[in-house]
Amino acid sequence: MIAREERVPRSLRRFAVPIGIALLAYVILVPLTSTDTAQQAGLPLLADKLWFRIATTVAMFVVMASAWNIIGGLTGYASFGNVAFFGLGAYTVGVLVSSRSWPFPLALILAPVTASLFALIVGIPLLRLRGHYFAVATLGIGVAVGEVVNNLAPLGASTGLFLPIVRSDLLFFYLMLGAAAVAVLSTWLILRTRFGYGLLAIRENEEAAKIIGVNTNLYKVAAFCIAAALTGLAGGIFAQWNSFINQENVFAISDNVQMILMAVVGGAGTVLGPVAGAISLELIIQTLAGGGSKAVYSQIGLGVLLAVCVIFIPRGVIDFFGGQSRLSLQYLRQTLRETSA
Amino acid sequence: MSLLAVRDLSKRFGGVKALAGVTFTVEPGQVLGIIGPNGAGKTTLLNCISGLTRPDAGDIRWDDRSISGMPAYRIARLGIGRTFQIVRPFPSMTVRENTAMGGLFGRPDGRLQPAAALKAADEVIDLVGLGEKRHHAVLRLTVPDRKRLEVARALAMHPRLLLLDEVMAGLNQVEVEQALTMVRRVQEGGVTIVLIEHVMSVIVGVCTHALVLNFGRTLIEGPPAEVLNDPRVIEAYLGERYARRQQPPPAPPSKGDGNAQA
């Protein structure tokens, strides 16, 4: 509501808005330097293969973290099974393109549909559970779906599925960027509607939400389905981009943990928190991946950083840098008190 | 026609009969006070009416239509608002936002959009006396203020019936007086009220009717002053011996009885 917007401090807006616009312009325009026309015109190549790989991965995690944020951050249901939606989206595209020879765009439209149908089926019973029970149950779903896919011959079983290779870094980057934009815009829109306030009410006190007239079951399932659709879309793009999918690369629980960390570190329940979290963490992870033998220590450092973030700035980086005197003991004490209830 | 009619309502939790056939009606404009010792089933009764608990047997009729077992959100939208004994605000929202949530979801006469709900919230915030604190975070509110907020959120739903679960518990004398004024103002606004209370001055002060629950049954029902002086009520609260001491002494037992055991 209005007061909620007031809470985004002006100082943050003054810095964040221009930086955000500059960053957005950079990621939209820089890839264009790799086109033939740009190269013939003598522009410097600012986006090589590695740039595209990292940028597309970052965008993919923006989608996943934002989608997780809708069910985990706004609704307060920490799902450890969102990766199942990613995998289902990926396998929808995989099967349709490789076995049925569907055109990729048509298959991609069905990826979010499959994922959200699945969310509807498992969400109705699972969303009756709360807290740790919900987390564990969804974790089970995430693992189970991967195992089932791993054992089904029509889905390539443990070999996986190979898709015809499409060589276009530009296409997949812009597709993933588009998906990220859709995810962020959806969150922004949701937070401006009655639906969004209903989700917040469920997160803050589900019984109180019921008693003021929120159809909690419907809202929770709807939020779960929206999260699933977005995650499935990312999975569908990934399948064609990577042109090879198997249980390990699309049903990885570590991906699920990663999207949660990104949303939480960035600021669960906010629009831009998951974006900030996904960009910063994925860039750190990608940097560490090329770190050689010292990568182990850097991984430990990342772990410590995450632990510190979760304990001391549980509302996320966005909130931490948002206020005036956030670097004070009082802020620390206040957030600890308010979030440990 | 009664606004609310509860008939033979029963609810059991394992071996405990929380409600064992409660029957009463609420007429429009009434302020019905429900009292009873701890564990008498008062909150279970409110939970059944508001749909948070599904009764095992019996019927609840609203406007002559059965609402027994209906989901809580639909009951809320029919015009039944409630508060919780242990307050349940939305902690990340301000007083104004919390209140607006009532108008955003619960109105029987058409739910409001976010901006309109915020505007509508201001009226009820003033009514419960939180006007100056409308932009405060809930976590900064004192207990009495949180109880007021609980009422404000329910009132924002424009209910025809308001169920108040011990809104005065834990308040001091002055705060109880303020709360009483608030309840009277709400009643004058045309809202029928059912309230659970332990503070007897509240029952006498605002209630038009009183009902005593004991072990899940209606012990007695009637005008507050009469009900509170009934020996059965004193017995239910303070035990049989205390009740007997308040009565004219019964005939002394015959001497033989006293020595029979010795």
Plain-language structure description:
The complex is a heterodimer of chains A (341) and B (262). By secondary structure, chain A is mainly alpha-helical. Chain A has a domain at 47-252. Chain A is 74% helix and 1% strand. Chain A is built from 17 helices and two strands. Chain A has helices at residues 2-6, 10-29, 36-40, 49-74, 82-99, 104-126, 131-150, 169-190, 194-204, 206-211, 216-242, 247-250, 253-266, 273-289, 295-312, 317-322, 329-339; strands at 161-162, 244-245. In chain A, strands 1-2 form a two-stranded antiparallel sheet. Chain A is globular, with a radius of gyration of 20 Å. Chain A starts with a helix and ends with a helix. Mean pLDDT of chain A is 84; it is low at 1-6 and 323-327. The longest helix of chain B is centred in the C-terminal third of the chain and has 16 residues, at 173-188. In chain B, the strands form two sheets. Chain B has a six-stranded mixed beta sheet with strand order 6-7-8-3-9-10, sandwiched between helices. In chain B, strands 2-1-4-5 form a four-stranded antiparallel beta sheet, with helices on one face. The radius of gyration of chain B is 21 Å and the shape is globular. Chain B starts with a strand and ends with a helix. In chain B, strand 1 (4-13) and strand 2 form a beta hairpin. Chain B contains eleven helices and ten strands. Chain B has 262 residues and is α/β, with parallel strands linked by helices. Chain B has helices at residues 42-50, 72-78, 95-105, 114-128, 143-155, 173-188, 200-206, 224-229, 231-238, 240-246, 255-260; strands spanning 4-13, 16-26, 31-35, 57-62, 65-66, 80-82, 161-165, 192-196, 209-214, 217-222. Chain B has a domain at 1-79 and 161-166 and 197-247: P-loop containing nucleotide triphosphate hydrolases (Rossmann fold, 3-Layer(aba) Sandwich). In chain B, 40% of the residues lie in helices and 23% in strands. The A-B interface holds A 1-4, 192-194, 197-198, 200-201, 204-205, 207-208, 210-217, 269, 338, 341 and B 50-52, 71-73, 76-77, 81-82, 84, 88-94, 96-97, 100-102, 104-107, 111, 113-115, 117-118, 135, 139, 153-154, 157.
